[in-house]
Amino acid sequence: MTAIQIKHVEKSYKSLKALGGVSLSIEEGEFFGLLGPNGAGKTTLISTIAGLIRPDAGSVAIHGHDVITDFRAARGKLGVVPQELVFDPFFTVRETLRLQSGYFGLKNNDKWIDQVMGELDLTNKADVNMRALSGGMKRRVLVAQALVHKPPVIVLDEPTAGVDVELRQTLWKFIARLNREGHTVVLTTHYLEEAQAMCQRVAMLKGGKVVALDTMSALIRRISGSQLIVHLAGGELPEGLRHLVSHDEHDGVPGKGGGNTYSLRVNDYSEVEPILARLREAGAVIDEMQLQQADLEDIFLQIMDKGTV
Amino acid sequence: MSFISVGFQTLLYKETLRFWKVATQTVAAPVLTAMLYLLIFGHVLEGRVNMLPGVSYTAFLIPGLVMMSVLQNAFANSSSSLIQSKITGNLVFILLPPLSHWEIIAAYVLASVVRGLAVGFGVFIVTVWFTELSFVAPLWIVVFAVLGAAILGTMGLIAGIWAEKFDQLAAFQNFLIMPATFLSGVFYSIKSLPPFWQAVSHFNPFFYMIDGFRHGFFGQSDISPWTSLAIVSVFFAVLAAIAINLLKRGYNLRH
Fold this sequence. Notes:
The complex is a heterodimer.
Chain A: E1 2-13, E2 16-27, E3 31-35, H1 42-50, E4 57-62, E5 65-66, H2 71-76, E6 78-81, H3 93-103, H4 110-119, H5 135-147, E7 153-157, H6 165-180, E8 184-188, H7 192-198, E9 201-206, E10 209-215, H8 216-223, E11 226-234, E12 253-254, E13 260-266, H9 272-281, E14 285-292, H10 296-306
Parallel strand pairs in A: 3-8, 3-9, 6-7, 7-8
Antiparallel strand pairs in A: 1-2, 1-4, 4-5, 9-10, 11-13, 11-14, 12-13
Chain B: H1 6-21, H2 23-45, H3 57-88, H4 92-95, H5 101-127, H6 138-162, H7 166-182, H8 195-201, H9 205-218, H10 225-249
């Protein structure tokens, strides 16, 4: 079943086109990453999904419920952690979570509230006023607020911006568990290593348009491949391998104690052994070798540089 | 069903708890202000003016002050809550859940009624000792107090939705609500005004709220309480329609 269906969504602010016809389909149970530089339209898209922004054209549906015409059903299935660190200064943590439960139609939700507070290390802050919390603690409460109604779709808009390592680990552990239990998770983040570690599929936005949409593994494979870096103590790189040499700082660079370092493009591990065999046949002596996999950051920069794939 | 939904109950509870947590500022302070009005105006004008036959000025003034406090505080509750939430950004906690437009408007307006009546009751309790008051038609007192508070609560909701900054809301309050309440017969009977200003007063809906409310105490008013009720009810219906329309359109809330 489709968790979030986004069809041809457009949104402009005066002359600025924030979203230029975005279409996406996120399946139930996916951990989906929405990436892009500042101003790419990520938050506008998330706000449209949450019903905080009304698109000029197109539609968004959560579990088949349109976010405008059937907004009550759609919002009931959605939990959103906003990017801004917002809080209501009148209430304690527990009051805040009870109120949020009530807005979603849940009375006597303390059992789950206690569990969520426990998972996010908020239990000892339950009766503390929101004003007295640190930024990191306020961020935890925002996450807890989004989860009070156990939404099948969880949207996290840069949930780890400006927070410490401990919260990141706590948060990802909890979110990963919810995802394993069947919750769909949509994440925007500028920490690409987080997206790479967590997301199964990724959409990259640039200038309000989707410029890449694929599974994480396919994206990494398709765009860049890996690099086999070899340092030859003796012998030359055979002619038959020269087409694999990538033009970066390693190519033919003299190494320590003589010899040259080459960086060769490989698509997967199975291509490594034939390369080594060719080197051995050519009498080359390898004294140092490293397989460097492309990461999401390489791909992100490549895509943002090219604009599309 | 939606009027007794958990969402509505929770938002009503939150809006009520919000002002109750700062009751010194939201309840005690306006009660003190009203008492100062009574002490000063009552002392200066008692025995010098006769607004209603057989009714002392202090007795005439008390219902006016009670109603003025009800109206101003009902307005303050919904408007200040909304503008604070908008400016601090925590309005998303109301906008993200599946609350209907009716649930939102009913909760904000009812919480305003609660605060308005709480302050009005407080003003009544501290001022009633200064003179002897009669209660000729208590039902009118309740009807106009509740309806007046609901109207001002709705106006506060509209102002809170419309305003994007605190000073816009302050302008709404200072240039519209405050003059309309002061010029509605809180301190005088419009019969004591020149004919032109009497006619102008009839275009002020606040006049009908206070006149009808005062009728409940003395059985006397500038115009029939039934006429006041009809005018005030129509006014409320128009404001409620505007508020619901703004909420449905997401005006200044959902961009």
